[in-house]
Every structure is written in C-alpha cells, then in structure tokens.
Design goal:
10-stranded mixed beta sheet; 35% helix; alpha/beta; Rossmann fold; two-stranded antiparallel sheet; single chain; 312 residues; 2 domains; 10 helices
C-alpha cells in the first residue's frame, strides 16, 4: 500500500522558489553506504551538532528537485546490512519511486550509529542515551532543516520545489518542518495524527484501547495522570512510556500536526486509512479544519485498503 501511496504522492505534489543563500555549506563525508547511490555529507546545525545526511547521486547528470522522507519513531539507522553483507536503505521504495524526478535526502538520527537495526524497531527506551535525550520534536526538526538547507546548496539540485514526506509519527515532524522552513514547498503526511498525538490517545482511551483494562473514564484519567508526569519530568531520558523516552513525548504531545499544516505555505497532501472508526474520525477532523481555512479537495483512493486523500 505504501508503495502506491508514495507513487501517487509524487504525481500529486510539488512550487516555491528556494532560498539557501545563508545556509551552511556541507562537508563531504567519508562513509558513503557501500553499493548504494548515496553520498554522505556533514553539516553543523544551529544547536552545534554534527548532522550526517546522505544525498542520492545525480540521476544521469540531470539536476533534480530535493525529496526528503521522514520516517516514524525508532532508534534505528536509515541503512541496514543484510545477512549476505549487502547494505540496504530502509525506505528504498521511496528512492525507487523518485527515480530521476528527485534526489532523495536521508538524515540519520542523532546518536544512532550507521547500520543499527534493533529487533523492536519502534521502541526507543533501549537506545543510546544521546539519542534518548536528543530525539525531541524541535531538535529533530532542526537537524532536518540543517540538512535540507545544506543539501540545497549542492550542485545538481534543481531549485524551486522541495518535497518532504512524513509517515506515521514522521508526518508530525514533516508538518513542523514545513511550518518553519520556507524551503519546503510540498509536504505529504501519511497515516499521521489528527490534531495532535494526545488527541489520538484520548480517542483510544474513550474506546478502551489505550490500556489493557479500565472503563473509558478510568483510561482517560490514567492518560491525563501520565501526561502530567511527562510534563513534570519531560527532560529525563531515563523515564519512558509506551517504549518512548519522556523527552520525545514532552515535545511531540505539545505540538499539533493540524496547526503546523495550517500555518505552512506549502502545498499539502494527506493520506489516511479509512478502515477504522478512529481513523475516520481523525481524518474528518483534519479535513474539516483544513477545508475551513484553505481550499481543499477530497479524493478517495482505493488501494489494498481504502484510503482517504485530500490535497490543498
């Protein structure tokens, strides 16, 4: 399903003049992934961190637009090594779909060594301390912004359009990047939250699906107690909830994908499954809010599972 969503995404989106005159120039790295058409670069972000990013090689010597894919949560590298020794990129479908239409930008998460691929990819509470402390929304967005601005200065990049695609929790990050970076002209959010993640958890609690037991009121009360604890100890990387450290929750639960999209000047593409009641509700909320503020078109798309797609 994701393969087809991403295919339609590249057809549906892309319109703005980039401006990277003040961006920091990246330094060519020495650790290109073996056997893959990516080049490593290093750049310092505004927080003083060294950010590692990988840029797809120029297709057939023809300049192409930038396309950044933001994955969901997880303390894993964007590359992994198979048992046969072959190195693979995690979201290889995105690179294949882009083809010669865009140069794919991949950014490694801070504190994650090349090739790290834990068995439980979505969990972060067993990750290196640097990652648990650093992987908060605004800090991750800053790393992506630095990489995006630096990549835009490189030869072979066609100016005018920059696509950012976020999947799952990555859609919230993508929306925030679109709201804060004028470089982003097109943003796509796939299977993300509605207003914010906290509202999604409240929906789950109401339906008695957040915790193994408890009435709706009991589950909501337990959730609000948990949120209070997160706010109080929000900077502690050794505390976790649902497999994610507190710094992650303290930043993400305060932010709203919907608000980000409404404040962005980028063209928006949103795709969600339409098979569960909670998903239908959150998509309806998001669509209604966007439609009331911007011109939006609702387009149902039928893949392996029904999707609801709207484009602004």
């Amino acid at each position: 399903m994701m393969h087809r969503v991403r295919s339609s995404l590249l057809i549906a989106v892309f319109a703005f003049q980039t401006n990277s005159a003040q961006a920091q120039k990246p330094v060519r790295g020495t650790e290109d992934p073996p056997g893959l058409p990516f080049e490593q670069y290093l750049v310092k972000d505004r927080l003083g961190r060294q950010i590692k990013f990988y840029l797809g090689t120029e297709p057939q010597g023809i300049p192409a637009y930038l396309a950044l894919f933001v994955p969901g949560t997880g303390a894993y590298s964007q590359f992994f090594v198979r048992q046969n020794g072959k190195t693979m990129v995690v979201h290889h479908e995105f690179h294949e779909i882009c083809g010669d239409r865009a140069r794919v930008l991949i950014v490694e998460k801070a504190g994650i060594p090349f090739g790290r691929m834990p068995e439980e990819r979505g969990r972060m509470d067993n990750a290196p301390e640097e990652f648990r402390r650093d992987f908060a929304l605004e800090r991750w967005v800053e790393a992506l912004r630095a990489a995006l601005e630096a990549a835009a200065t490189l030869p072979g990049i066609k100016s005018g359009r920059v696509l950012v695609v976020g999947h799952s929790d990555g859609s919230q990050v993508a929306s925030r990047l679109a709201a804060t970076s004028p470089l982003v002209t097109d943003v796509a959010c796939l299977s993300g939250s509605s207003a914010n993640q906290l509202s999604g958890f409240i929906d789950s609690a109401r339906n008695q699906k957040l915790y193994p037991e408890g009435t709706p009121d009991e589950q909501i009360s337990r959730l609000l107690d948990q949120w209070s604890d997160i706010r109080h100890y929000g900077d502690d990387p050794d505390r976790s909830w649902l497999g994610q450290p507190y710094p992650y929750w303290n930043s993400n639960l305060r932010n709203s994908t919907l608000d980000n999209l409404l404040s962005s000047n980028a063209r928006v593409f949103v795709a969600d499954r339409w098979t569960r009641a909670i998903t239908r509700r959150r998509t309806s909320i998001r669509y209604t809010a966007l439609f009331s503020r911007k011109a939006a078109t609702l387009r149902p798309c039928w893949f392996r599972t029904p999707l609801i797609v709207f484009i602004i």
